[in-house]
Amino acid sequence: MVLRDWSELPIGAKKLIIYYSISSIPLSIYVFFPIYMYLLGFSLELVGLLFTIYYLLMALSKYIVGKLLDIKISPKICIIVIDSLAVIEYIIYSLASAPVHFIIAFVLDCIASPFFVAYRTIEKDLYPSDKLEIAYRHHMFWPYISQLFSIIIMGIYLWILNDPLSGMRQLFQFNAILHSLIVLYVIRHIPDTSEKVLLKTEKKRSSAKIFRGPLLFLSIAEIVIITGYFITPSFIFLNYLFNVLGFTIITITFIEAFDTGFRGLASILHKRIEKHKKLSILMISLVISSLAGILIFITQYVRSHLLLLVLIVVSLIFLGLGESLWWIQHEAIFLKYVPEDRRGEVFGTISSIRSIINILTPMVSAYIASKIHPLAPFLLYAILLLSSIPIYTISLKKTEFS
After folding, report:
1. Which of 81, 93, 122, 132 could, after both became Cys, cross-link 75 (CB 3.0–4.6 A)?
2. Nearest residue to 120 (alpha-carbon basis) of 148, 139, 147, 142
């Protein structure tokens, strides 16, 4: 069991994982976030446009900070800034009624976005290098278990209240209060590591020297896979469930619970198969995720309501297992290739590239879903994930991780 390895982690790593577990509670509201937009009368295309604006603001925010803010900040301070801004963001969502309100909240989130690099930096500081697989199993397991129970409780609350719009507003208010408490937890319990996060963007010539060999291919693979994730945002899937199939809130909660639950159980699965070749685990995880995308796509041909529900649940089980298994293994390998003295630069560069690439993906997804088929993005998702397998093969076949 994944639980048995907990004692092997240092206290700093445990406190960070507890932080991720607590902060996963308010994040559970984002399972229902697109439904909140649909309840406000927003169309699929408008939702896609709003998320495109969000990613554009995200890229601009990181660029501006990179140009103007030439300072190093401890990861702990960065996390405090992120969670403090989240308090205001949730308050705005609780009062939102028009697209402009979401844009204002997006701006706040984007102001915090350059600080997100602190997460991977502090993980590098606190997770023991000789036990990264153990650390990331717990890193995935506990937050997803926390999120699983939160999704179920929130879904049942919205169902019992029988007024999902009002209920969503109340949940956002609750999350604002919870994030205030999370800030206090960070201040009191998260170690202030000696290493700092460099917020100013380094010169491209300097970055080019880092990204070579296995690290270059691992970075490319990560960007391709994350692009696949972005091409199938939650608002596409929830549009299919809520607007096309007409599923109720409680049914969607039931479906999403399987997805979240099996993301956590991937940690246990990884424990059982970690003795196998690392490259094989990566390939298995990507094949499982791709199969999930294909299964979701073919649900359009299922006529039996019961079989349709079963197939969707099975697809999400595969999706949860595959994506989480990939992240555990990818991070454990990736971090070992990142130079100790240039972690912030590596993580910041990759984060910026991902943001730029994904600016248009919400609009592209919305266009594909509305003009071709609501599930067409999932087929593209499967293709992108499968295309990353040769990249991993080139990167790792002659290394210790093969």
Report:
1. 122
2. 139
Structure tokens given for 373: 């088929």
**Neighbouring residues of 202: CB distance < 8 A, sequence distance ≥ 6:** 345, 348, 349
Residue of 279, 305, 322, 266 whose CA lies nearest to 143? 266
**Closest to 366 in 3D by CA, of 76, 105, 34:** 34
Scan for tokens 């201040």, then name that residue.
187
Task: For the full predicted model, state whether its pTM sits above 0.90.
Answer: no
pLDDT digits (tens, 9 = 90+) for 357-384: 778 889 999 999 999 999 999 999 999 9
Question: What CA–CA distances, in Å, run from 402 to 52, 276, 278, 372, 397?
Answer: 38, 9, 6, 40, 5
Q: Which residues contact 58 (CB under 8 A, 6 or more apart)?
A: 109, 110, 113, 355
Q: Encode pLDDT of 162-216 as tens digits.
A: 899 999 999 999 999 999 999 999 999 998 876 666 565 554 445 556 666 778 8
CA distances from 37 to 228, 235, 279 (A): 23, 9, 40
Round to whole Å and give the CA distance between 272 and 316.
21
How do strand 72-73 and strand 197-198 relate by DSSP bridges?
antiparallel
